[in-house]
Amino acid sequence: MAITAIKGFNDILPENTGRWQYIEQAARRVFELNGFSEIRVPIMEKTELFCRSIGDATDIVEKEMYTFTDKGDNSVTLRPEGTAGVMRALIEHKLYAQDPVTKLYYLGPMFRYERPQKGRYRQFHQIGAEVTGVNDPLVDAQVLNMLCAFFSEIGLHEPTLQINSLGCPECRPAYRAALLAFLEGRLDQLCADCRRRFVTNPLRTLDCKVPGCAEATQGAPAMLDHLCGNCGDHFGSVRHYLDSTGTRYSINPRMVRGLDYYTRTTFELVTSQLGSQSAVAAGGRYDGLISQLGGPAIPGIGFAIGIERVALLLGERDFSRRPDLFIATMGSGERFAAFGLMTGLQKLGVRVEMDYEGKSLKSQMRRADKLGARYSVVLGENEIASGKASFKLMETGEQFEAALTAEAVRQIIR
Ligand code: HAM
Question: 402: buried, middle or exposed (CB in 10 Å: 19+, 13-18, 0-12)?
Fold first, then answer.
C-alpha cells in the first residue's frame, strides 16, 4: 500500500503555490516598507521555551504540542507558534543591543495537534511580525495598520479588525478576582474544560465556543472596565492613532487570546467565511515576555497571519503562471531551431514551452491550449528556410509575423 501524508499535514501542490507566493511576496513588500527585516529561526526548540512563554495552562501547551524526547534525552517541541522562538533568538544574540527598536518578520510552518478541519491543520503556516523595544501606543497602531495594509495589498477587504486590552500585571489580578466571583455562581453551567479553566485560566472561559458557556458568561465583567490608569490611557491612545488614520475596527471586550504572554492591546482579524475558524490573523502586546524568558525588561508587540486561511479567503482567483509562448514543431529537424529560440527568449525573461516528445502537431496544440499559452507558433521547413514565422495570439486567433530571433519575437509578445 502506498504511504500517505500524516493526518493534518498537507502538501501544497504546484497548482496552489502561485497563490502562496502571492501572499508571501505581498507580506514581504508591506513589512519591508515598514522597516521590518526577516529572521529565520529553527522549527524546533527546547520544550521549556514554549511552557514558559505560551503558558502551562493553555490549550496549546496542555494538549497541542508535538513534544518528544530526542536521542540525547532532551525534551524538544516542534514550534506551535513563532513569537517564542524569535524572542529566544533576540535574547540569545542580544539583538536589542544593536538597535533598541527591533522590527522582525518570519514565515514558515507551525505545528499544533488540533482536530483538523477546514482552515485548521496540524502543520500550518504563519507569517508573523514582531516589534520590540517600544511602549508607545503609536507602534501598536503602526503594527495594526501594517496588518490591514497587507490585506488591502492582496485585495481582501473582508477580515475585520477587532481589538481589546488585557491590562497588565497591575490591573489584571483585580479583574481576575472579579471574574472568578462572577463565575463562581455559574460553575454548574460551564463545560468540563471551563470548570478546569476556572482554576487554571479563568479568562479563557470568555471565549469558550460551547454554547452553554457563552450563555453562562453573558454579562461577565470585562477587562476593559478594570484597566488601571496607564493601561486605560494606552488603549485610548491606540484608538486615537487608529482613528487618526481612518483605520476601521470594533472593540471586542470578550477577546482573551489563547496564549498567556499578552498584556494590554490584543487584536484579531476575523472573517465569517471560514466557519468556526474565524481568526485569519491575530496578535497583541507582550510587555513581560522578554524578561520572563531571561532577557531585559523590554516590551514587545506583534501578530501572526495564518497563510492557509488567507489562501482560502482568496477563493477562486487564478494564480497559475501561463507560458507566454508555445513553440510547436512539424518534425525533428525543427527542434534545434525551436530549442535555440526557447533558450534565447528565456534569457530575455519570456516564459516558453515546447514539445519534448515529438508528438503530433494536433497533440502539441492541445498541450499549448491546456497550458494556457498566450501565443503559439508552428515551426516547419518553410519557417526555418525563410527565418520568419507567424505567431498566433491564442485568445483571438490574430497572427503576427516576426523573424525567428529572440529579440524580434519578444517585441511581439510584450
Ligand atoms: P495565534 O492566534 O495562536 O497567535 O495564531 C495566529 C494565526 O495563526 C491564527 O489567527 C490563524 O490564522 C493561524 N492558525 C493558528 N492555528 C492554526 C491551525 N491549527 N491551522 C491553521 N491556521 C492556524 C500566535 O500564534 C501568536 N504567536 C501571534 C503573535 C505574534 N502574537 C504576538 N506576536
Answer: middle
Q: Which of 75-89, 307-321, 336-350 has the lowest mean pLDDT?
A: 307-321
The CA distance from 143 to 152, in Å, is: 14
Residue 303 sits in the same domain as residue 354: no
Model pLDDT for residues 325-337, shown as the tens digit of each residue: 999 999 988 999 9
Q: Do 304 and 359 lie in a common domain?
A: no
Q: Mutate which of 255, 309, 313, 314 to test ligand 1's pocket (most atoms within 8 Å of Cβ)?
A: 309
pLDDT in tens, 35-56: 999 999 999 999 999 999 999 9
For residues 262 and 375, membership in a common domain is answered with no
Q: What is the pTM of this model?
A: 0.93
Same domain (yes/no): 238, 148:
yes
Q: The CATH number of the domain where 338 resides is what?
A: 3.40.50.800
Task: Please report the sign of the dihedral spanned by the C-alpha atoms of residue 283, residue 284, residue 285, residue 288.
Answer: negative
Q: Considering the domain boundaries, does residue 64 fall inside one?
A: yes
Does the beta carbon of 80 sit less than 6 angstroms from any atom of ligand 1? no
Same domain, residue pair 365 and 231: no
